[in-house]
Design brief:
Layout lengths: L1 E2 L2 H13 L2 E7 L6 E6 L12 E3 L8 E2 L13 E6 L2 E4 H7 L3 E7 L1
């Protein structure tokens, strides 16, 4: 459970689409809203998320052009970006030809 914001909800939905999160649900009303996120696990009980690294920080924002966005862990991971078209993964950003702020990478 994390406090709700539209940004966090968009990021959680992208992670759900990428297969790292099993379920995303908004709970509560008005100022007491929260976001319930259920992680995805394999059949043997190991989590899909092995590591997550935050790239852009308040003291150092990192931006990348679409031409410079590379796959994470030979395509096995995901890079999440904040673009003018919204939150996107590295694959979606390359296909759309847009760059943006690098938020984090996960594998």
């Amino acid at each position: 459970m994390v406090p709700y914001s539209a940004f966090r909800h968009a990021v959680a939905n992208k992670l759900r689409d990428a297969g790292y999160v099993k379920e995303v649900a908004k709970r509560g009303k008005k100022t007491r809203r929260s976001l319930e996120i259920v992680l995805h696990y394999d059949t043997d009980g190991t989590p899909k998320v092995h590591q997550a690294v935050r790239l852009s920080k308040p003291s150092r924002r990192l931006y990348e052009r679409a031409a410079n966005i590379r796959p994470i862990k030979f395509g096995k991971g995901v890079l999440v970006l904040s673009t003018p078209q919204g939150i996107m993964t590295d694959k979606e950003a390359r296909e759309a030809g847009v760059g943006g702020e690098l938020l984090f990478k996960m594998w």
